[in-house]
Write a structure and sequence with these properties.
heterodimer; A: mainly alpha; ABC transporter involved in vitamin B12 uptake, BtuC; 15 helices; B: alpha/beta; Rossmann fold; 2 domains; six-stranded mixed sheet; 22 strands; globular
Chain lengths: 364, 506
């Protein structure tokens, strides 16, 4: 029997993730060294590419937007004791919802269409996640299995819709037509230009602000609301929840629906914000990265925002690095990202016992 | 003279600011049963954990059979012939008895040979010490008493000469405890040494040869059991004389506040657990439910509390008849409070801070927030007040519930349920795993509620507790009511017979 290791809160929330990231970078550095490039130089390019100039920052935050939504989705389900790994599928279905509104109503003013389109993304994603939630609550089918299967169903559904329903006549491309003006979320560089701040053109759009708002709402929901209390109770002790008059079945469906709604909103960044049409494969695996983001951020909105930012830096900086150093290919970048996920996500508790001993020794 | 089996000298252990063990000396003679008693948090478990290698003492020495040793892990302890039976069993439920016994002592890459050996050993131990158990039974399907036997066999299989038992009777039914004591007696007669941690003084008096008393991390006394008494031990343990609450004047009970009529409850597998049960609890009355644990009491309580739906019959709480639409939360709004039998499984979310546990069952109440949000400051303040009221220590609403001692966790549950101002209180095993001081306090609270004209349903496997508090006793066996007796017109013998299903003692 090993006694559970406990760390002071600051060490658990800040120091441990920092150590994990540092070790991940160290391991990635060894990989870079092995192919004959300088790790220091590579790190420099990566950081400069992601944070060194306004354009890089724009791209970094654009990527981070996806990770915020995906991470929040995983975190909400996690608080209720559920592991929703169907973010990809829920985002796909959310994108279909947003696109349907934008295609049908795009001729109307954006102030009317966009809220409806964002809401549709959330509702479609919520409905797609509520089904596995219901199956778990009523039939005991594990959400890990069902949400994964729902990912495949969603991606097949998307291809069918694109090819047979949304494709304009005569087009050879599996995508919908472009939305009319009312269905486009404004770019941040356009918004900032209106108040006289100039910023280079990047895909960063209003979705980022909506994502920050979603993080605040999730914080209030989980930490402050009666509903969130019920979800957390079910996650921590379902028997006690039932004793307290909280139905674990209902909480499971509700938590999955909220989680799916957040995942569905991930679609607005790409569909309403950048592409302005429904395309194939727009989720790009971000839904899975959301799991690592939520793990690293301890399922708390603040930690999660920082983790989302880190992954934004890795995506954007990695792209620059692949461009600058041909020997460090795109695949190498994926390896580096994988190492960060490995150390920060999967192995997050590896250093915990050692750190606890170290801190304890200092106390004496 | 032979060297003592265990000799601890000046053992000291701190956890941060907590001085869990302070200069502890303990000598356990070979072949004896030695009791260690003390309230929750007195340091008994820490001391045993040091002996079993979970923790290392900050200072002090341990000698086994006269030879000084260092015990750095439980593997060291096992090698020195020390075995431990934990309060919460360390068994793999889906595996068989023989497989569990073998676990960690397989003796090779293939387990077939080990299993043959284990089977033979289990048979031998059964014959030698009365530890009879089927080696091919699946552990999860055994009763708690038999599971404990498997734990003991596991320790003996590993060659334990010294056996440590942590609160061994806490999980046993009254019928199982004497069987355990017989086994322990047989073990000590055949030369093994038993160390038993408990806070049940009756057990200490019944089976031990010597007893050591701990209080607040210190060893306060060693006694030969024959030369001491329950009241002396109780005083040593608590540090002051215990005042048992007086039952109080028998006020005439009023109208029934809780009525159960022809109640039948089935479990999830459709097995009938409660069959056609009827009784009432009146205002100003405590009704005790007596029965060997597992005879439908838990299901009866959960049905009344709105946690499970009865198959048929009616439940009335303060005039309101529960319907299919009611759940545990709405039962509370009709004036019910429920102290559940297992605080860890049901009564508390141990990962939450204390204040969030005071919300359990009340998180939708208007008093604790506005609109969809919970008012954290107000709830924390209310919790601090409640904790002060019920003497929950430490009175820190932000402390994680798992970090309170068992007695204080139970007080937290009782505080929450009584503060809600119920008309009907169900108290299921309200003092299970709670030390003497807290038991007196909890009994006092129940009697105060009775005096205030509330209806209390007390479910307990401790007949002493029921006789100390209840006005009437409902005896259950096999899910049915065997009989109802006013406490003044019966005795423990009659109730004991009824618990076994005998309707009327001839």
């Amino acid at each position: 029997m090993s006694t559970p290791v406990t760390l002071p809160r600051w060490a658990d929330l800040a120091l441990l993730p920092l150590i994990n990231v540092a070790v991940a970078f160290l391991a990635a550095g060894l990989v870079v060294l092995a192919i004959g490039e300088s790790p220091l130089e590579a790190t420099g390019i990566l950081l400069r590419g992601a944070l060194g100039h306004a354009e890089g920052i724009g791209f970094t935050l654009y990527y981070a937007t996806n990770f915020i939504f995906a991470g929040l989705a995983v975190a909400v389900a996690f608080h209720a004791g559920l592991f929703n790994i169907g973010g990809e599928g829920q985002a796909i279905v959310g994108g279909v919802g947003a696109a349907m509104v934008a295609l049908a109503l795009g001729h109307l003013p954006g102030l009317i269409v966009l809220p409806l389109a964002v809401l549709a993304a959330a509702l479609f994603g919520a409905a797609w996640a509520a089904v596995p939630g219901w199956l778990q609550a009523r039939r005991g089918s594990h959400v890990v299995i069902t949400t994964i299967m729902f990912n495949f169903i969603a991606s097949a559904l998307l291809i069918y819709l694109l090819v047979d329903i949304f494709r304009p006549p005569g087009s050879m491309e599996p995508s919908s037509r472009l939305f009319a003006a009312g269905g486009k979320l404004p770019f941040l560089h356009d918004l900032l230009a209106m108040i006289g701040i100039s910023m280079p053109k990047t895909p960063l759009n209003l979705s980022f602000v909506i994502a920050l708002g979603a993080a605040v709402v999730v914080y209030l929901l989980i930490d402050r609301s009666r509903l969130g209390y019920g979800l957390r109770t079910v996650g921590a002790n379902p028997t006690a929840a039932r004793y307290g008059g909280i139905s674990p079945e209902r909480a499971t469906v509700v938590a999955m629906a909220i989680s799916g709604g957040l995942a569905g909103m991930m679609a607005i960044n790409e569909i309403l914000g950048v592409q302005h049409r429904l395309i194939n494969d727009f989720t790009g695996g971000y839904g899975f990265v959301g799991i690592a983001v939520a793990l690293m951020g301890r399922s708390h909105p603040v930690g999660l925002l920082l983790a989302a930012l880190l992954f934004g830096v890795l995506y954007q900086g990695g792209t620059e690095l692949a461009f600058d150093k041909p020997r460090i290919t795109r695949d190498m970048i994926v390896v580096i990202q994988g190492l960060v996920i490995l150390f920060a996500g999967a192995l997050e508790f590896m250093f915990k016992p050692a750190l606890a001993r170290l801190l304890k020794a200092k106390e004496r | 003279m032979t060297a003592p089996a265990i000799a601890l000298t000046a053992i000291d252990k701190r956890f941060g600011p907590v001085h869990a063990n302070r200069a502890i000396d303990l000598v356990v003679e070979k072949g004896t049963i030695h009791g260690i008693i003390g309230e929750n948090g007195a340091g008994k478990s820490t001391l045993m954990s040091i002996l079993y290698g979970f923790y290392e003492a900050d200072s002090g020495t341990i000698a086994v059979n006269g030879a000084p040793v260092r015990i750095r892990s439980s593997a060291d302890a096992i090698r020195l012939g020390i075995g431990m039976v934990h309060q919460h069993f360390m068994l793999v439920e889906p595996m068989t008895v023989a497989e569990n016994v073998l676990l960690g002592a397989e003796g090779g890459a293939l387990i077939a040979g080990g299993l043959v050996h284990a089977r033979a050993e289990i048979a031998r131990l059964g014959a030698d010490y009365g530890l009879v158990v089927d080696p091919d039974a699946v552990v999860g399907e055994l009763s708690v008493g038999l599971q404990q036997r498997v734990e003991i066999i596991k320790a003996l299989y590993r060659g334990a000469e010294v056996l440590i038992l942590d609160e061994p009777t806490g999980v046993l039914t009254p019928a199982e405890a004497p069987q355990l004591f017989e086994v322990l007696g047989e073990l000590s007669r055949q030369g093994r040494t038993i160390l038993i941690i408990t806070h049940k003084l009756k057990e200490i008096m019944a089976i031990t040869d010597a007893v050591s008393v701990m209080r607040r991390g210190e060893m306060v006394a060693h006694r030969r059991t024959a030369a001491t008494s329950v009241s002396e031990l109780a005083e040593l343990m608590v540090g002051r004389a215990i005042v048992h609450p007086a039952r109080g004047e028998g006020t005439a009970p009023g109208a029934p506040l809780l009525a159960v009529e022809h109640l039948t409850v089935r479990d999830s597998r459709k097995v009938v657990r409660v069959e056609d049960v009827s009784f009432a609890v009146r205002a100003g009355e405590i009704v005790g439910i007596a029965g060997v644990s597992g005879n439908g009491q838990s299901e009866l309580v959960e049905a009344i509390a709105g946690i499970i739906r009865p198959a048929s019959g009616a439940i009335r709480i303060a005039g309101h008849t529960l319907t299919a639409a009611d759940d545990a939360a709405s039962a509370r709004t009709h004036g019910l409070a429920h102290v559940p039998e297992d605080r860890h499984r049901m009564g508390l979310v141990t990962a939450f801070p204390a204040w969030e546990n005071l919300l359990l069952g009340h998180h939708r109440d208007a008093a604790y927030g506005s609109g969809p949000l919970i008012d954290r400051e107000r709830t924390v303040a209310a919790t601090a007040q409640t904790m002060a009221h019920f003497d929950v220590r430490p009175a820190d609403p932000l402390l994680k519930t798992a970090n309170f001692s068992g007695g204080n966790q139970q007080k937290l549950v009782i505080a929450r349920e009584i503060e809600a101002g119920p008309q009907v209180l169900i108290a299921a095993q309200p003092t299970r795993g709670v030390d003497i001081g807290a038991i007196a306090f909890i009994h006092q609270q129940l009697l105060a509620m009775k005096a205030a004209g509330k209806a209390i349903l007390l479910v307990s496997v401790e007949l002493d507790e029921i006789f100390a508090l209840a006005d009437r006793i409902v005896v259950m066996c096999g899910g049915k009511v065997v009989g109802i007796r006013p406490v003044a017109e019966t005795d423990q013998n009659e109730i004991g017979l009824m618990m076994a299903g005998v309707e009327r003692a001839a």
